[in-house]
Task: structure prediction
Amino acid sequence: MPSLDDVVDLDAVIPKPKPHLLDDDVQKGRRAIDRVLSASDAELNSRAFLLSQFKNFGLPLVTADFFKPWAAHMNASGFGALQVPTEYIDMLRTIMPLNLETGIEIGVYRGGFSYFTTAVLQRVNPRFTLTLVDPWDSMLGFDQFAAVLNLRKLMPSTSQDFAGQRFDFVFIDGDHTYEGAIADWRNLGVHAARAVGFHDIHDHTPGTGTAQTWNEIKAQVCETHEVYEFAHAVERGLGIGLVVNPSGYRTLRQLI
Result:
């Protein structure tokens, strides 16, 4: 099947993947993943350690100006995650104590976020498994990372294919229209047992509905759940919203 890179012209924003450079980048990324999986408890609880390993994974530590250009902040082959590292690591550190066992990511693209997330949460709980969902298979390096990580790749698929299923952790970063984002929330987010992450909570680009969706979500759940916003690059969008169910025994659907 084609990848998202084959059907959408992303050159102006995101560099096209360079498969001939992938082996070197995967080896570098695997070293960082292996280091996370073998980390001591003290290291795992260190923000500085996780940020350094994310950098070693293939991305520099960046600030709000990292949009100029994207290519300067991705590894050479292009599998790296498009995240502001401090936002992302702060979200991970918030959900690590939940001892999550199952997760699902809606909107995977090239897989960088998926691999590092799984490594950290699998180090916390060796049974943790991340299910990867996307209508396009654009992932790079999946087989190499799956050799040491608990990954379940299901593509092509969307949140509708899992509607009503319960996962400990749901991360929503799929269709960025309001209709698509709210559908992901209704299909899977409200059924999350422990936490829901939501990407691009400050993206007001025309045609993007993630900011509106997030504002509606947090208004629904702020009285019954812990709500966090990690937004270190607000000027240009991005940001991660997080809803945590502190009770751990009722889903969001049962509480709303």
